[in-house]
Amino acid sequence: MSNVTLVEQFNPLLRVDFELKNSFKLLTQINKDRALSMSFDNNLLTEVHGLEYVVGLGIPANLKYTKDHEWVSIEGDVATVGITHFAQKELGDIVYVEVETLDQTLDKDEVFGTVEAVKTVSDLFLPLSGEIIAFNDALESNPESVNADPYGAGWMIKIKISNLAEVEELLSTESSEIPTIEI
User: Where is the Lipoyl-binding domain (predicted)?
Assistant: First the structure.
């Protein structure tokens, strides 16, 4: 054995969450890594520090989320679904939203439609099992609403939830799995 390394991670070292009046959440987090490496060949001790600053912006605190970057608003047994600001930013300018599953009952994680951007087409996955009871018809003539107002006018479908237990599997803004913006 000629080398030994010890790695420490402090993730997060510091985290501060602010909830603003309009239910948007601001997350500020500092992550720190430290690695100590001892080489027995040349008797050197090396220490490496790394700091990462993470800021999450504009994440509505009153919604639930999926790992596929969809947001969900729950009212009783009806869920309204759209894509997150992060998802629309990654896709770019939205030019078409297609949902051909209106009035169909689908299982969680099944494809319920597609969103087309200038350079790509992406599937949309159902976050909860249930019947698709409404489609945002305004997106047919104004698909750019998904970019301009993803949590409002850019909503996509409404679902009559068939398995309310699945709601507990959705992510909250407290989850570290919600995408953040790194600076």
Answer: 78-160
Total-model pTM: 0.68
Supply 118's token pair.
């200038």
Q: Three-state SS for 157?
A: strand
Answer whether 56's CB lies under 8 Å from 174's CB: no
Q: What is the pLDDT of residues 36-49, one digit of tens each?
A: 777 767 777 777 76
User: Rounded distance, CA 91 to CA 84, Å?
Assistant: 11
| Pairwise CA distance, residues 68 & 83, whole Å | 9
**Contact residues for 176 (Cβ-Cβ < 8 A; gap 6+):** none
Do 22 and 77 share a domain, yes or no? no
CA gap 118, 49 in Å, rounded: 41
Report the CATH number that the domain containing residue 158 is assigned in CATH: 2.40.50.100
